[in-house]
Amino acid sequence: MTANETIKSTIRIFIHTGEVSGDLQGGLLASALYRQAEKRQLKNLQVEGVGGQRMADAGVKIIYNTVKLSSIGLIEALPFLKEGRRAQKRVNQHLFESPPDLMVLLDYMGPNIAVGKLMRSHRPDLPIVYYIAPQQWVFSTKKDTQNVLDVSDKLLAIFPEEATYYQQAGANVRWVGHPLVDILADPISKNEARSDLQIEPAAQVVTLLPASRQQELKYIMPRMFEAARLVQQAQPQVTFLIPLSRLDFEPMVIDAVERYGLNARLIHKADGQKAIAAADLVINKSGTVNLEVALMNVPQVVTYRLSNLTGFIAKYVVRFTGDYVSPVNLMENQPIVPELLQWDATPEKISAEALALLNDPCKREAMLKGYAQMRQAMGEVGVCDRAANEILDMLPARYALH
């Protein structure tokens, strides 16, 4: 077989995450794609993409590492624009020179819509699947919704209301459930986690999750750590656990712990889930990790903050009108966890919510009941395999071996 024949026989799927937060989901999806392709006897599958270490560990050939493109917010993203343009130019060149048989757009809207439109114009026959669609079903912005529809042959929804919204908008939608169900089907228990981390069973433990992006160290961590100081002032016996999402954050986190005088212990990233499971409470930035905490049945307070200018634009220019931002609350549009966002994200309000959950059994029980309801809406185990099969079904007919 010649080199050209070998290339032609390879089935190539490209996953475009657009931003570092998609790396976990991209890695889970890639593993499922390889698993289901083997069951279908689809030989020579090659998954390429834009992502990070989790995708690379799952066997994805990384064309560009998204760790350099980690930002949320309008003003906050400005320092990343130059790098983002450079990254997209490299990705586009790769896609033109080595076009895939199918493309998966994952989550983050901006770069995904751009590359989706580019491929639509240059390769209109290329099947494109949008997995974990942008939350236009929360914002209800018609233009952005249409952009998603324009670049999608199939949309794989992870929230029930997301599926309903996009279906009513005219998309070809399949609801597959939320992928975290797969990795947290049988989470570690509180007792096991405390044993592994050498924490006394009776200790009062609060886990702090302030940042997975550089900007969050600036806008979220100071207020969260000041809130933790107020909790410690009220309950001096408390111990804080702080999992490090990135090793390069360690000096800044250590400095902040000392500055706020916290009785805290830093936890390696590999033990991050243990640090959550071991806690009586988590004070948490808004994001997918909120669902991890909920699936481990740990009460939490959710907070988030961007720059004042971004907050002003979101409120008065973009006119964001969504009731919730945390995926726990979005799952069924119910206020399961408290959200303290932007100007409400004060140390006083965060600490007050935290102390209420630590000291009021009724509040804790109400939240746990909400978690149970939320869990039902997340679907059954096997989410990633269902998504993988929906994607493989979109391959050109010459690969359709089942």
From TrEMBL:
Origin superkingdom: Bacteria
Keywords: Glycosyltransferase, Lipid A biosynthesis, Lipid biosynthesis, Lipid metabolism, Transferase
GO cellular component assignments: membrane
MF annotations from Gene Ontology: lipid-A-disaccharide synthase activity; phospholipid binding
EC number: 2.4.1.182
GO biological process: lipid A biosynthetic process
Reaction equation(s) it catalyzes: a lipid X + a UDP-2-N,3-O-bis[(3R)-3-hydroxyacyl]-alpha-D-glucosamine = a lipid A disaccharide + UDP + H(+)
InterPro entries: Glyco_trans_19
Protein name according to UniProt: Lipid-A-disaccharide synthase
Lineage: Bacteria, Bacillati, Cyanobacteriota, Cyanophyceae, Leptolyngbyales
